Amino acid sequence: MEIYEQLKEKYSAIGQDVDVHLKGLLHSKPITYWDYIQTDALLGLQTQRTNQPDEMVFIMYHQINELLFKMILWEIEQIADNEELTPDFFAERLDRISRYFDMLSSSFTIMGDGMEVEQYMKFRDTLTPASGFQSAQYRMIEFASTELINLIDIRFRETIDRDTPFSHAFEHLYWQAAGKNYKTGEKSALLFNFENRYMEDFITFMKKYNTLNLWTKFKSLPEATQQDTKLINAMRHYDHTVNVLWVMAHLNAAKKYLNSGKESVEATGGSEWQKYMHPKYQKRIFFPELWSEDEIENWGITNLEKHEIVEAV
Ligand code: HEM
Asked: Which of 6, 81, 207, 288 is at a distance of 20 to 30 A from 281, taking alpha carbons?
């Protein structure tokens, strides 16, 4: 009866008769695992373009990545939209986000070791000019993690500040270098198609996260919490996993396939990938204030496996 009264209150608040809803329960089908998880829809999304079995590994692993990217963005959003952020809530969500990215980095051998080079070389030709470069969620994770200036191509950082229009900053994001000829301004199909589809969404997203990204949220925590070594280490762990470990795992997989012949082949997206992808050139760092000068200098060069600090920096 107590539950009935609560339900009655709930439904009358929206002008509904609880008894009708309860009668509906008499005929409704019980939920099943497959309806709830939508397994049929999920497992119907793997469509090969070739007859090479390993193309399935490639497709499915990318889809798994996109699902994990979505989980990461979900947690970042919980932090961003929380107007009464507590240190515990922040730390717990950050740990979740890190666990997901740890999983992405440590599982990258599924790409590196899990496909036959010969098969890869066949199905890759059907993918041009598409590339993982065009993963919108990956870019959103970046926008949502750090101050925009840290994503600007290192060569143009001094020309951009908080008063620069978003559209101008966008043209100077580090990843423009993968597809833009800076002398002629001409963009490759890889970049042109990507922007055509997502640029407006990205600008809206960039505006939101300009003040709500993980770094600004961290800076909004009490001063003492910001000095907490455990939290600083968790921030550094996330930064290092995304911007060094994952990047290196990705680069090494790319090298294995694209350097497999006598000469290295062009990437499907057509970038000068060897140079573009190595972390030491772009020095993408989400939280530069949490790293020493020496660590930044050696970003992606020395192995920062021991990236935990003992004392707060
Ligand atoms: C054998 C597997 C893979 C190879 C050979 C490969 C190769 C490449 C290359 C060469 C690029 C540079 C852009 C271009 O295409 O010209 C690139 C960019 C990228 N790929 Fe992959 N990739 C692989 C797997 C993946 C997977 C599983 C993901 C996960 C979604 C992914 C996500 C990305 C992202 C986000 C970028 C842009 C990175 C940046 O801008 O620094 N890639 N990839």
From this structure: 207
